[in-house]
Amino acid sequence: MNDTLLMNEGMQALITSLGNVNAEKFISLMLRESFDYTKWRKDHLFSGMSVEDISKEAMKLHNNNVD
User: Fold this and answer.
1) Treating both helix axes as pointing N-terminal to C-terminal, what angle do 20-32 and 3-18 enclose, rounded to 10 degrees?
2) How confident is residue 67, by pLDDT bands cut at 50, 70 and 90?
3) What is the Cα–Cα distance from 4 to 1, expressed in whole angstroms?
4) Which end of the chain is less congested by CB atoms within 10 angstroms, N or C?
């Protein structure tokens, strides 16, 4: 996937999930804050989940997207 397509699909995902106004607000917040995605991911993304839990969720997503 090229950069332009990734940006377009990412923006569409934000708009679908958050709506137009909140998608724009999210992007503004990300640009304004000194945000460390790597630290955030370690602290929040899979917090409290075991490797097995993460694997099960990944398989569910995979199976839903295969159909």
Assistant:
1) 120
2) low
3) 8
4) C
Q: 2 — alpha (psi -120 to 50), left (phi > 0) or beta?
A: beta
pLDDT in tens, 33-65: 888 888 888 888 888 888 999 999 889 988 887
Task: State the virtual CA torsion across 8, 47, 18, 38 in degrees, nearest 10.
Answer: -40
Query: Residue 33 corresponds to which tokens in the numbers above?
Result: 């804050």
Cα(19)–Cα(12) distance, rounded to whole angstroms?
A: 9
Query: pTM of this prediction?
Result: 0.57
